[in-house]
Amino acid sequence: MNKNYKINTKCVQSGWEPKNGEPRVLPIYQSTTYKYDDSDFLGDLFDLKADGHMYSRISNPTAACVEQKIAELEGGVGAMLCSSGQMANMLAVLNITSAGQNIISMSTIYGGTTNLFAVSLKRLGIDVRFATPDMTDGEIEALFDENTRLFFGETIANPALVVFDIERYASLAHKHGVPLVVDNTFATPVLCRPFEWGADIVTHSTTKYMDGHATVVGGCIVDGGKFDWRADGKYPELTEPDESYHGVRYTENFGVESAYITKARVQLMRDFGVPLQPITCFILNLGLETLHLRMQRHSENAMKVAKFLEASDKVSFVSYPLLESNAQYDLAKKYFPDGASGVISFGVKGGREAAMKFMNSLKLASIVVHVADARTSVLHPASTTHRQLTDEQIINCGITPDQVRMSVGIEDAEDIIADIKQALGE
Ligand SMILES: *Cc1c(COP(=O)(O)O)cnc(C)c1O
User: Who has the most CB within 10 Å: 18, 264, 265, 324?
Assistant: First the structure.
């Protein structure tokens, strides 16, 4: 699709570009299997010399169109959908990290990702070193060693809403010869495109705003195509022959710009088998077609709700990146000039009990374990998403016991605010 089109146009039209007489809407290619006229072509496919699909564990035409759309939205060279956001972050790490090596991650990340890194990847022999937002550059640099493979952070951290200074961390990562991986789930490419600020790999839980209707779980990895994997011989899995593929060298055979995403697909997706199903891709694509409209409304509504809460004396604190009172306001203005997405968090005066009572009194907003869909919802992180973490880990994630996370939907802001008002007992 024309690269000069604006992101709003790409949301609607990128990906599926029908030829004469083909369906206008992205078709669901519900087929695991593909048919060939001759076996030589299939041989070339297996050798990765020809372009095409061989088996839907590895790729599928419906998925490919949605991958193309997300890559274009982020401004990357290629993307790979997978079964969940968890899987996207896991594959993003495993693609370039082995037992005995380590990664550096911000501590203020999604609880599920904290567990993935600190528990499951640790069991696979991968060490994670957590950086906190208050660390100086020098303190962060001290975390790197010759076995460090990547630096990880979330554009807007879930649920602490800490803004990740992408430019700063990209330059620290690059100084140590490793890529910056950014989970852009909360911002979406409509509000922030991390590649434009120096990130190298972007991940998504498409389950959230991209789908936007709380219907399908999915994940995506996007390759920015700019990181030079050859630079200091640190990534032999990309630069040296892959024996499981007759000695293919990803950087040589697919170019430095596509090496990472190609390996993720033909090696990790082949071996782990966690594709997103065609019908799921179709549903995800319906969500993506209105992503630009929804992100604008989510952001506007969240701003109105945040301002209302800030003025309420029943509330102990309000955190929303674009509130002028926010410590990271300047950073938020820089990275999110068009809005800071729909999630806000705030404390209800009276601690844990008051927070629970408030939530139970809501009528329009519902209590769910999800964020980022069309309907306004609330969650108490300390007793749910972060329940498996220790108190110290919870505080490291930037969470307090009285904290409510609200995912502001796209209903009328007046109705959302009226509901909050009655639940606060104002
Ligand atoms: C939800 C979420 C994930 C995990 O995604 P799933 O699709 O639930 O597996 C990862 N990162 C962030 C920022 C999330 O909000």
Answer: 264
